[in-house]
Amino acid sequence: MAETSTTTAGALGADFDPWDPAHLADPHAVYARMRELEPMHWNERRGLWFATRYDDVAQVLRDQRHFSCAQYNITKPHMTSRPADGKRYQAFKGATMVTTEPPEHTRLRRGSAAAFGPGGVRRLRERVRTIADRLLDHAAARGGMDVIADYAYGLPVYAIAELLGVPEADQEQFMRFALADRGSPAHDPDADPEVLARTEAHGAELRTFVEAVVADKRRRPGEDLISALLASEREDGLTEAEILDTIHLMMEAGHITTVNLIGNGLDVLLDRPEDLRRLREDPELAPAVVRECLRFAGPVQFTGRTAISDVMLGGRMVRAGESVIPVLPAANRDPRQFLDPDEFVIDRDPNRHLAFGIGIHVCIGASLARLETEIAFATLVSRFPALRRAGGARWNTSFELRGRTTLPVEF
Question: Are 403 and 262 in contact (CB under 8 A)?
C-alpha cells in the first residue's frame, strides 16, 4: 500500500531538512543518508517532499503532466519566515521561462534560444579566452590570487555582457551590479529584512540600467541576445516587461551559478594534482572534466515542482497541491546510476548528470556555462603549471547554490 504525506515521520525524522545549517558543512553525507534511508522524504515543518534518487528526480523534472514549476513558483512553499516572494527584486518580478509552463514557457524561451545555440555560443569562444587571459594577466604579477574574487566572478560577468550585447563602455558598470548581487534571498527561507530591502533597492537601480541598454539596442540592434529578444517582441508578442525580466534572469542565473561551478571545480582539481597534470597536457579533456565537475560538485542544489494531480513517486503517493524538492547533487551521486559515485573520475563516460536539469526546463545557458568553465580551467592550468593552494577555502552557507566564497591559490 502506498504511503502518503500524512504517515508518521520516517527514518529521518519529521524535520530532517537540508536547509538546516548543521547539514551544510557536508551536504553529500546528508544526501546519501536521505537517498538510502528515505529517498522520498516528507518534511513536516516545511510541508515538502525531498526526492534524492536519480530516477525519482528525473521523473519529477520530466513529468509536465503531474508536476508544475509554475505552480511551485507562485507559492514558493519552501519559504517559512517571510512573505512568499520576499520582495526579491520587485523591479523584476514577472513570469519567465523558468517559472512558466507551455504555451507561455515556449513563447518566452524561443526568443532566447538562438543566442544560446551552437552558433551564438561559438561566436563568444575567442572573446571568453581573451577575458580569461586579461583576468589572469592581473593576477600573474602578484604570483597568486583568490580564484573566486579575481577570476571566477569576472569571467561569466563579462561573457554574459557580451552575449547580451552590453556596450563595452558599460561593462564595468555591469560588473559592479553583478558584484552587488551576491546570493539569492529569494531562495533563502531565513533572509533577514535588511538583506531583502537592500536587494529590492538594487533591483530598481539595475532595472534602470537594463532599460537604457534596451533603448540603445532598439536604435542599434546587433547580433546579441537583447536584439534577438526585441525581434521576438514582434514575432512572439513579448512585452517590454517580459524582455526586461528575461534579461535579468540571464544576468542572475547565468552568473553566480558559473562562478560557483568554476570555483567548485578548481577546488576539486587542486586536491588532485594528477588530474591537473592530465588536463594541462591534454586540453581536449576540458569538456569531460567540466561534466564530471558538474556531477561531482555542481553548484545548484535544488529546484521545485508542485503536483497538479495525485502521482506515485518513488513508492510514495504525492497528492495534488503538495510540492517536491528534487535534490540534484543527491541524484548525481546515486550509485544506482553512477559507478563509484563518490569518486571524481576525470574522463567518466557515460556521465548523464542532472546538474542542468532535464526536460523542457533544462538550463538554456548550459552550453555557455560549459564553454566558460572549460576555458577557465584550460587557460589557468596552461598558464600556471605550478598552480597550488595558498590557504584555506571557505564554503558559503546556502542550500540553494553551494560554492566557495574564497579559494586562494599561488602560481
Answer: no
Let me know: does 28 contact 342? Beta carbons within 8 Å: yes
Q: Give pLDDT tens digits for 179-197.
A: 765 555 555 556 666 766 6
Q: From residue 392, give the alpha-carbon distance in Å to each of 104, 267, 300, 404, 405.
A: 46, 11, 23, 11, 11
* pLDDT beyond 60 at 326: yes
CA atoms 355, 210, 152, 404: torsion sign? negative
Which helix (H) or strand (E) segment holds residue 124: the answer is helix 118-140
| Contact between 356 and 116 (Cβ < 8 Å) | no
- Per DSSP, the chain holds a count of helices (H) and strands (E) of 17, 12
Count Cα atoms within 13 angstroms, Cβ side, for 368. Answer: 35
User: pLDDT tens for residues 247-284?
Assistant: 888 887 788 899 999 999 999 999 999 999 999 999 99
**How many C-beta atoms lie closer than 10 Å to residue 207's C-beta?**
18
Please provide the DSSP assignment of 43-73 as one string. Answer: ETTTTEEEE-SHHHHHHHHH-TTTEEHHHHH
CA 35/CA 137 separation, integer angstroms: 45
Residue bearing cell 561569466: 156
Query: pTM of the predicted model, to two decimals?
Result: 0.90
Average pLDDT over residues 297-309: 95
CA dihedral (166, 172, 177, 182) in degrees, to 10, reads: 120
* Element holding 146 (H helix, E strand): strand 144-146
Cα separation, 242 vs 108, in Å, equals 8
Q: Is beta strand 404-406 parallel, antiparallel or unpaired with respect to 67-68?
A: unpaired
389 three-class SS:
strand
Burial of 215 (0-12, 13-18, 19+ CB in 10 A): exposed
First vs last C-alpha separation in the chain: 60
**Local confidence band at 205 (pLDDT 50, 70, 90 cut-offs):** confident
